Amino acid sequence: MSEYMQGGALASDDLDFSASSDRGRASEHASTAVKSPALNVAIGVSAVVMVVGLVLWFMQLSGGMVQTAMRNLDSWGLYITGFMFFVGLSAGGLIISSVPKALGIRGFGGISKVAVFSSIACTVVAIGLVVVDMGQPFRVWELFVYSNLGSPLMWDIIVLSTYLILSCVYLWAQIQAERGKVSAVALRVISVIALVTAVLVHSVTAWIFSLQQGHEMWHTALLAPWFVSSALVCGTALVMAVVIGLRRAGYLNVEQDNIVRLAKLLGAFVLVDLYFFGCDLLTEGFPGGAGAEVVAMLTQGPLAPYFWFEIIGCVACAVICLTPALRRNGLLVTASLLAIAGIFCKRVQLLVGGFQITNLADMAPAVNSMSITYADGTLADAYANLVYWPTPLEAGVTLGVVALGFLVFFLGLKFLPLRPSEK
Amino acid sequence: MTRYGMVIDTKKCIGCHVCAMACKTENNLPNDVWWNRIFTDNGGEMGFDMVGGSYPDNLQFGYIPVACQHCENPACVKVCPVGATYKDPETGVVRQDYDKCIGCRMCMSACPYNGVRSFNWEEPVFHMDYAMGSKDAPEHQQHVVEKCTFCYHRTSQGIEPACMHLCVGRARFWGDLDDPTSEVSRLLAERSHKRLLEDRGTEPSTYYLV
Question: Are strands B145-146 and B52-54 parallel, antiparallel or unpaired?
Fold first, then answer.
């Protein structure tokens, strides 16, 4: 810590001086825009997909959200699933980058700026997905004029925008610190604030769901810590996959030792997440009744494929990450992708599962095309399968928003000095 | 303080759906939008309007009309980020401001009484070429959440809600739950009654006489 405070390594991402010569080499042309044909193609493709998504979004607004698969009894769908997922994904970068700085411990070898930037891109996607989910996006100004500060959604909007701004400030501070314009103390203070906001943003996102007494599956105090752990899993996995990918592409140079430490961390996070899942299933299922219904739905009901993919994927990820012999780059990337896909499956289970079980189930209502996606048969038919499966339009809009995130990320790679550049 | 409530006598309800129809007409509801729905109380295994249970001794059949329960402690009001859904201070009725609603559907998800709120997933389409019902009922908009208003345009004038007005079995009663002399208060004092999902703590103002 004392070293951290003393001039020399002020700007470094961590206290690992041994590799500074390598990084120095990488930084020779860090300040100029990256000239890579592949990157230009990636930017072009993301931009095109984003524009297609934008067109589909206008179609959704003009033709009505009846073109999505959301209905009165399953009123949120892929957009909000994606929102939860990307809020989680954004965590890793910021936490990986800020924990070492905040606590004054060894970091992960110069990946800090890329990690924070991946966070920013994911936050942009998360916010975008909320916007496309809104029925009246042009009334968004009301959020600031008529704010109901008691609404968890309002808390989320406040914390999420703070988070986005803070991530940008944090990135800027790191770049300025490298140029010697921001002091180490200031950077450290910003890291601490960023860390607190990161934990808060996941908790508040969980509270949107867990504070609703209307859904047995969501209404649990465990949800907020569980969101933090899931966020750490997929966030760390994302950073690891991105860093290995960028190293392969020759964008930055990171020693294997740092990757291994990330892998160990990922393995530990995955185990914590599975542990929380186990606790939750036991608590819900043990008393029987409505909770047992939730457990049955997950393990053998319509959501079983998502459940088992998550469990098996996460266990496989933990095995790869925690077995030294298996920590090869290809396998580590596979493990990361399994963890990310597993957490996405978890989000699907949570969101679709929340609507899959109705409260007034002992009475049969008349259903129609506005109550539920599959209203052709009886309500029992509709609930025998998944109540919700996205339409192509929804998938296209979601893809467009995700492409916006990729676009932001690729533009950042091209124009911002994100490479490790400590001398 | 006034707190409007509704008492529905399930012994008198014959499941004719006229209250649902009255609501639909009075409020000029778009196609496939029903604020007031009649549930078949049959254990949920069988479909709508069908007998539940097992033949011959354990058959179960009855009707429960379900609309917004106008809760004393409404889950929807707490979560609305812009206050588009709010509790009317004069009457305790949970109201919805269509012009303010941003269409986030947080209230739909928060309400434990699945499906009493409906979102206009498309630009409202009507069976009739002309508007039906009361001219004072608010107009429908695409992409906002709406629900039973307790016929606010009628009850604020002292007229009973449309569903009660046309109820064939005279199973519905409306009045001030805080006034011990009102008809609803007397019925609740005399008869045994239940409310839906009382364990959720929402304190609904709709009572069912059993």
Answer: unpaired
Annotated domain spans of chain A: 33-211+391-423, 214-357
Rounded to two decimals, the ipTM of the complex is 0.90
* Assigned architecture for domain B4-209: 2-Layer Sandwich (3.30)
Tell which A residues from 214 to 233 touch B, by Cβ distance under 8 Å: 214-215
Residues of chain A with Cβ-Cβ distance to B200 below 8 Å are: 213-214, 359
Question: Max Cα separation, chain A?
Answer: 72
On the question of a cis peptide bond just before residue B56, with omega within 30 degrees of 0, the verdict is yes
One digit per residue, the tens of pLDDT, for chain A of length 423 reads 343 433 333 344 444 434 444 444 444 444 456 678 889 999 999 999 999 999 999 999 999 999 999 999 899 999 999 999 999 998 778 888 888 888 888 877 778 888 899 999 999 999 999 999 999 999 999 999 999 999 999 999 999 999 999 999 999 998 888 888 888 888 889 889 988 999 999 999 999 999 998 888 999 999 999 999 999 999 899 999 999 998 988 888 888 888 999 999 999 999 999 999 999 999 999 988 878 889 999 999 889 999 999 999 999 999 999 999 998 989 999 999 999 999 999 999 999 999 988 888 788 777 888 888 776 666 666 666 778 889 999 999 999 999 999 999 999 999 988 887 643
Q: Do B100 and A139 touch (CB under 8 A)?
A: yes
Stated pTM of the model: 0.89
A33-211+391-423 classified as CATH 3.30.870: no
Q: Say if residues A205 and A82 touch (Cβ distance below 8 Å).
A: no
Contact B119 A64 (CB under 8 A): no
Bridge-based pairing state of the strands B206-209 and B4-9: parallel
Contacts of B100 in chain A (CB under 8 A): 139, 142, 146
* Inter-chain residue contact B40 with A363, CB threshold 8 Å: yes
Looking at residue A184, its amino acid is: A
Q: Which of A81, A141, A362 to mutate to test the interface with B (most CBs of B within 10 A)?
A: A362
CB contact under 8 A, A370 and B47: no
Q: The tokens of B169 are what?
A: 């079995």
The neighbour count for residue A222, using CB atoms within 10 Å, is 16
